[in-house]
Design a protein that fits this description.
The complex is a heterodimer of chains A (about 180) and B (about 180). Chain A has helices spanning about 75, 165-180, and strands at about 1-5, 10-15, 20-30, 35-40, 50-55, 60, 65-70, 90-95, 100-110, 115-125, 135-140, 145, 150. Chain A is mostly beta strands. With about 180 residues, chain B is an alpha+beta fold. Chain B is built from five helices and 13 strands. In chain B, the strands form three sheets. In chain B, strands 11-10-9-8-13-12 form a six-stranded mixed beta sheet. Chain B has a four-stranded mixed beta sheet with strand order 2-1-7-6, with no helix packed on it. A three-stranded antiparallel beta sheet of chain B has the order 3-4-5, with helices on one face. Chain B is elongated and about 65 Å long. Classes of the chains: A mainly beta (about 180), B alpha+beta (about 180). The interface of A and B includes residues 11, 16, 64, 66 and 110 of A.
Chain lengths: ~180, ~180
């Protein structure tokens, strides 16, 4: 489990051990909450942006210290990532119409099959009884997003965690429960 | 034998007794996890062409065995693609340490261990040796063939992480071998 913003500045490393670029920004799709890919920049303090992007499907492995790709060739096509956006500050609302809070961070699972698994949200007053500490909310596999609001199943609120420890298990439990319900 | 012990040894042509240079590095083929050539300045000699690696010198039967780099691997090695001092990154993007030395089988050239600062990693996990990093396979991602073998090849830090995932009791005081035994 890692926060998407922590990937900024992480090296993109090929399986050969070369690092052509580093991550500039994470690009999210505005309709499903998925990660579309990454924009890139050259290494270093003054590293300028490069006209290459890394699409999510070409990521070999993603972890806290690097984004691993098979080789530089996956970057050589001048991909235009679909213009993505940013879900930060979107409102999270349950299907039943309760406002849970607003998105502060996107949480990604690490490893070979990395995906968006949750959001860190600043809770609304009603949701956490006035506590303003951020909490982590798990997401279903697919999600309705309008660019302003993100709708989650009512039961997502039952699987909220205060920190990332144990959040992976909460995501699994939440998704298992959704699978049973449908 | 250790990489760092061999570096700097004289390379001697046994047919003329001339000194041809010093051992400046090795060319590692990550696919076979083995040293395939030795760097002498900006030239290379195949591992199989080296006559002997003695305590003081590497001997060759002729100077003509030294050649300019021809393969990509050799070119990359001449351009600085050696593992010493590089960080080790798993294919899942986790930094597990920095290479301090490399343990090489003196007869076959097989890379047995990457020796990290306080840890080590089995050589067969090598995927790539580049100018930025050494890339190694992630536990459980490649070889579904031998699970216990897999544990053996992990660094202590990686074993500890697995122990944490399984909430293994007493893990913080265990040695590497104890962690392997408890996890298998």
């Amino acid at each position: 489990m890692l926060r998407a913003s922590t990937l900024e500045g992480r090296p993109v490393v090929t399986l050969h051990g070369e690092s052509p670029h580093e991550i500039k920004d994470v690009v999210f799709s505005t309709d499903a909450g998925d990660v579309l890919g990454f924009t890139l920049r050259n290494h270093g303090f003054l590293g300028g942006p490069v006209p290459r992007a890394l699409s999510w499907g070409d990521v070999h492995g993603l972890g806290p210290d690097a984004v691993v790709i098979a080789d530089e060739q996956v970057l050589s096509v001048d991909h235009d990532l679909p213009s993505g956006g940013d879900v930060i500050r979107d409102r999270v609302i349950t299907e039943g119409g309760t406002r849970l809070g607003e998105v502060v961070e996107v949480v990604i699972s690490a490893g070979a099959e990395a995906e968006v698994v949750g959001f860190e949200i600043r809770p609304s007053e009603a949701f956490r009884g006035g506590s303003t500490d951020n909490v982590f909310i798990p997401l279903p596999d697919t999600l309705a997003i309008s660019g302003e609001n993100i709708v989650v199943p009512d039961t997502a609120a039952d699987y909220v965690r205060d920190d990332l420890t144990g959040f992976g298990a909460a995501v699994d439990d939440f998704r298992a429960q959704l699978g049973k319900g449908s | 034998m250790r990489w760092n012990q061999i570096i700097g040894r004289d390379v001697v042509d046994t047919s003329t007794a001339e000194s041809l240079g010093t051992v400046d590095g090795f060319v590692i083929d990550p696919e076979g996890s083995a040293v395939v050539a030795i760097l002498v300045g900006s030239r290379v000699v195949s591992w199989s062409d080296a006559d002997g690696i003695g305590a003081d010198a590497l001997t060759l039967t002729g100077a003509d065995l030294l050649h300019d780099p021809t393969s990509d691997l050799e070119r990359r090695a001449v351009d600085g693609g050696h593992p010493i001092g590089k960080r080790v990154i798993t294919e899942d993007g986790v930094d597990i340490g920095t290479v301090a030395d490399v343990e090489i089988d003196p007869s076959s050239g097989a890379v047995q261990q990457l020796v990290l600062v306080d840890d080590d990693v089995r050589g067969s996990r090598l995927i790539g040796v580049g100018s930025f990093a050494v890339v190694v396979s992630s536990p459980g991602r490649r070889a579904a063939d031998d699970d216990d073998e897999d544990l053996d090849g992990l660094s202590k830090a990686e074993l500890y992480e697995l122990a944490q995932d399984q909430d293994l009791e007493g893990r913080s005081s265990m040695t590497k071998q104890e962690l392997i035994d408890a996890l298998s």
